[in-house]
Design brief:
single chain; about 325 residues; mainly alpha
């Protein structure tokens, strides 16, 4: 059941890149195929005891709670779909700000607390390793949030609640693969570095012009990918060396980096090609992107026959 929740949250991340322009049935069909064709193989390769990436080298790919399996795979798939589907009508000429920053802040708080179960629960025990994973999660999230506010203060002379939330998320995704092996100083550094990388990834998105509505690639893909690679240089002293000796091999930070890089390359290639194939299956069978009239009406009304908010009468909306 715990692993089932991971499987549920991964395609939910992808949905953020597709907001306001895909059909409900197309998305349902997509996530069924994506789960079976992309998520399940990656999950087995990286987490199963007989998975080939789990057993790569003397130590295997390190991915405690889904840096590759969840965040990089979702981020890459989101980018591919955003490019294939195209932009929302009016983007980027029409400003499309968050609908409700209060709800955004509440959601960020729920994410921050829920991530303790996400990372600490992935140790599959209740002990020192669990406490370490929880602590590293807290340190990285706090470091990410503070760093994003500092960046905004330097560039814009003000800190925003949306920036604070983005920093929290950048800190959480970068520590997801690394929470079981790094120390507090490493978690703090990773959180800060992730915020910097994600901040500029979001600015690059604006210049490049693709429409990833909730920045799935810019935060989940970039931030977690950074954690997957750089965790190699912040592993607790002696931890991997002892494991490698027990396995009859030699370990070094650079050798682990190369193993992590291998896992990254496989994930990016598999998720991008697989998503491309699935997109064309969905588009050619039942259709994926909605038409212009439905999009202008809004998906609440055109696809579901309801209003997201009761503040305006249906007659006025019509």
């Amino acid at each position: 059941m715990f692993q089932g929740k991971f499987a549920i949250i991964t395609p939910a991340l992808i949905s953020g890149a597709l907001a306001e322009r895909v059909s409900f049935r197309g998305y349902i069909f997509f996530i069924i195929l994506w789960f079976l064709i992309i998520y399940c193989p990656l999950c087995h390769w990286i987490w199963a005891s007989d998975g080939w990436l789990f057993n790569a080298g003397v130590s295997g790919v390190i991915d405690l709670a889904g840096g590759l399996v969840i965040h990089v795979s979702a981020g890459i798939s989101a980018l591919v779909l955003a490019l294939l589907l195209g932009k929302r009508r009016g983007y980027p000429k029409t400003a499309m700000h968050p609908n409700n920053l209060v709800m955004t802040m509440i959601g960020a708080g729920l994410l921050w607390v829920g991530w303790f179960g996400f990372n600490a629960g992935s140790t599959v025990q209740s002990g020192l390793d669990t406490a370490r994973a929880l602590t590293m999660t807290q340190v990285s999230a706090a470091s990410g949030a503070l760093t994003w506010l500092i960046i905004e203060a330097i560039i814009f002379r003000k800190g925003t609640s949306l920036g604070f939330v983005s920093g929290i998320l950048a800190g959480l995704v970068v520590i997801t693969p690394a929470a079981g092996v790094v120390q507090p100083a490493g978690a703090m550094f990773l959180g800060a570095l992730s915020s910097i990388a994600c901040f500029y990834a979001l600015r690059a998105k604006i210049k490049l012009g693709y429409d990833d509505s909730l920045d799935c690639f810019g935060i989940h893909g970039i931030g977690s990918g950074l954690g997957v690679l750089l965790l190699s240089f912040f592993i607790r002293p002696g931890w991997m060396e002892n494991a490698a000796k027990a396995a009859g091999g030699h370990w070094s930070a650079m050798s682990q980096f190369l193993i992590q890089l291998q896992g990254m390359g496989v994930t990016i290639a598999f998720a991008s090609v697989g998503t491309l194939v699935i997109y064309f299956i969905v588009e050619k069978s039942i259709g994926f992107r909605i038409d212009e009239q439905q999009e202008m009406e809004g998906l609440d009304k055109s696809l579901h026959g309801e209003q997201g908010y009761g503040l305006v009468s249906s007659d006025l909306v019509g």
